[in-house]
Description:
With 214 residues, chain A is mainly β. Helices cover 12% and strands 30% of the residues of chain A. The longest helix of chain B is centred in the middle third of the chain and has 18 residues, at 209-226.
Amino acid sequence: xxxxxxxxxxxxxxxxxxxxxxxxxxxxxxxxxxxxxxxxxxxxxxxxxxxxxxxxxxxxxxxxxxxxxxxxxxxxxxxxxxxxxxxxxxxxxxxxxxxxxxxxxxxxxxxxxxxxxxxxxxxxxxxxxxxxxxxxxxxxxxxxxxxxxxxxxxxxxxxxxxxxxxxxxxxxxxxxxxxxxxxxxxxxxxxxxxxxxxxxxxxxxxxxxxxxxx
Amino acid sequence: xxxxxxxxxxxxxxxxxxxxxxxxxxxxxxxxxxxxxxxxxxxxxxxxxxxxxxxxxxxxxxxxxxxxxxxxxxxxxxxxxxxxxxxxxxxxxxxxxxxxxxxxxxxxxxxxxxxxxxxxxxxxxxxxxxxxxxxxxxxxxxxxxxxxxxxxxxxxxxxxxxxxxxxxxxxxxxxxxxxxxxxxxxxxxxxxxxxxxxxxxxxxxxxxxxxxxxxxxxxxxxxxxxxxxxxxxxxxxxxxxxxxxxxxxxxxxxxxxxxxxxxxxxxxxxxxxxxxxxxxxxxxxxxxxxxxxxxxxxxxxxxxxxxxxxxxxxxxxxxxxxxxxxxxxxxxxxxxxxxxxxxxxxxxxx
Lengths: 214, 350
């Protein structure tokens, strides 16, 4: 089923998506006409797959719960803010604050992500195939951040829990973070997570960072 | 503005503050009916049902040393007097529903709370303390938290996000520092905030900022009036010393007052010595107003005193000839002219 977002404001679009996903005969929805619209797909709570053709703007998919979302384009700031479940896959790049304050579920970017990626993460899994900007994992409490490329300054600053996997280099890493030797189970967990995000990897080239315990 | 102009302006404001409640009371003209309710609503849409019966609002944790039982007493007071508390839901979990006041959920704009926090709130206050209406002025390297909201456009989107998450059932306001009201207030009104909180920077003494906060409140009300929303609720997190100051701040254009700063600023030496608790300070505020008006003091019952406090404030307003809080702005204009005539000082801008 196709839905054209161009004729609808974000409020009306979100309302229609809620109605459509409750219909028993709808198995998947393809959204066309995406051209940087903000505030799309808020508090989605349906496992019906949604595919967005084009790029989206800021604050999309905030507080979504069980949604299975694929975006064939870029996405703006604070996408997947406070997600509580489901999976969001962005085939392009993400701007700042991707996956911030996520509590559960998976958010993945095939390209790069901007500053403040996974800020305040509370348990969700964030996977970025490319580079991330400054302050990634800032004030992270729980969950996993996987960075397939390099990281900017202050990686993991104020982080109090959770795990960061980094493949490339970081401009600077918070002093209280330690590189922890990866066990086979960690590598398996990483590979599984990457697989869920649609990325094949053995996890061998990654380093694992955690908060140092005194 | 030259130094002499600045001094004259400051003197005038000071005089206005002192003279405002000394205007000839129109007691004889007041009908012998019950005291009008100084209520105002925080919401701007029909579905918003947030009406305060009192201008008093407190902010959790009230003071840093506040114990749970003290918070309970203050909540009971706010509930009885018809005020509200700005607090996370978790902090009020132990408060009985019967004595819980209206709750304004605080939310830093660069943060994202638990969803239940927003859904259970009576109103939401987005705290935009590094107000970025001119983002060039913010040096992010000096901030402890990396900003998500780096422009006014992002704030507008975040507010819309909160509105949609709550199905637009809850009034959403924004708290800003008092420093740049001329730039911030028109923008906030433009993006449709339901109420505005002016934050007085903590740590400032009560003496010098009086002029600053008075000008900020007057400036904010003027901006709201110019934006054709003269009744836009403006809460003021300002420092005040006693009940007279409360009346003056309301007269200058504030709709509600956050009384927690009164605890912090008015009696820092006592607070340091831990001599008095929060509700004792509230009692003193009540007695201070009573003394200034020759109103008999309330008895020992705390709820009676809370009611008395509200009625005393209304009495102050009535002595200024103000029948209802929504009439304050119009009444203030007349009061200002009267004060200027009485003191022989020229009005600003004339």
